[in-house]
Amino acid sequence: MKLQKKVGRLMIAGFKGITMSEEIKHLIHSYHIGGIILFGRNIGTPAEILALTNSLQTEARKAGYKTPLLICIDQENGVVRRLGEGTTIIPGAMLLGATNDPMNAKKAGFMTGKELKALGINWNLSPVVDINNNPENPVIGVRSFGEDTSNVAEMAKSLMQGMQEAGVMTTLKHFPGHGDTSVDSHLDLPVIHHDLERLHAVELVPFKECMAAGADAIMSAHVYFPALEKKENVPATLSHSVMTGLLREQLGFDGVITTDCMEMDAIAKRIGTVEGCVQAVEAGVDFVMVSHLHDLQEQAVFRLAEAVESGRISERRIEESIERIEKLARKYTSWEEIDSNNTVAEFVGSEKHHKEMNEIYEQGITEVKGPGIMIAAEDRVLLIHPKNEYAMMVEDKRYATLTMAEQLKKVHGNVVSMEISGEGPADIDMTELAGKYDHIIVLTLNADKHENQRQLVGELLASGKPVDVVAVRSPYDAAYFSNANRVICTYEFTESAFEVVAQYLAGKTSINGRLPVTIK
To answer: Is 260 an active-site residue?
Structure first.
């Protein structure tokens, strides 16, 4: 049991529900797991979140922890955010990149950290420092600040420093770079064939600059790099040459290394989650993350303990990771701070925070083509919006494109909205439909991958009515709509983004973003 509690410190585990489960309580008491990850399934009201995090820490104290639990979350903002109603909606990475101002990233980072800390969450799995230099990337996309290496590095560093100043531990992800992939590692193993010179000149630059500025933790990518790992199809997470040889020895990183979730198919369907956890520790990581299944979490602890008992992994190797983990736990947490954090701070989700972030939305939302014909006060307006059919498994299922209709109706008196499937409408005469309205707005959701969405816009344009296209996730949609009246990129379909777009369409505000990726 002593050894299991030692290797258990290297485990990050998730669970279901907005209250502490018996399974997670068992992992805390029996194995002293070092970290807990929260998802949307754990998120209630701010008061419920704080009650949950406090209960987890109370249990850790009862179990005899020297330092508090590290409680982490993927609060990247934008399309990947876990906090819900009652908290501030904060711009995601690509929208921040479109502002071209690192101070906006720092403000967003500070506010993110401030609200997380107030809710008892002391570790954010952010920023994403991957460079989105592949338009076909199915898993990074707008989670990245853009395609320019130096801009990504500067924005990521500023966002990281903002969160750190708010007292929250940060994570650079996904090392050594997940930007130039066309495969989602949730579903299979991506391969990046760039040579070492290219990796140092592009993919590794943001990591190196953030490390020089005091990065806390780095998350590994379940991506295979033949230039870095001789053994075929070994992802970076399981590669000693990447995790230890490159990251520790060549780049000199002495903070915490965590894996991405080991239940993702790039690991689970190849080597298996449990064996993957052992190989990741052998490779040099400090934390292995098993986000979902309790049986796998417990089996991973057992297998790691067996690996130490058999001599496959040295006990000293485990102790090195514990030392790194506890060093950061002491830096970002204290029992005294937890004891004093009993009520949700008034600034969480406040109108002041909302207003500050909306100013950034105005600087980042981008008009690619315009201004075109403005909507008149007497116009009959048709808003067509797609169902939120998700492109990325990492996204939260709670957020919908429907809120654009709500926001537009607040600023214009004659709006009719129509929801369609992401593949486009069937059996609807668009010319006849357009004839009933004076101005048409179409939201697109990854139209670069959905031909029917592009066809829909084409049919509406043929009616001769002014058609505004709002690309609500992928900015690459803009390439298809050069004939539209206006083309606007929001990079995310958050309520705050829609509020600003609605205000702009009604002539009540301005938008000033610049595309952080190339549209061909």
So the answer is: yes
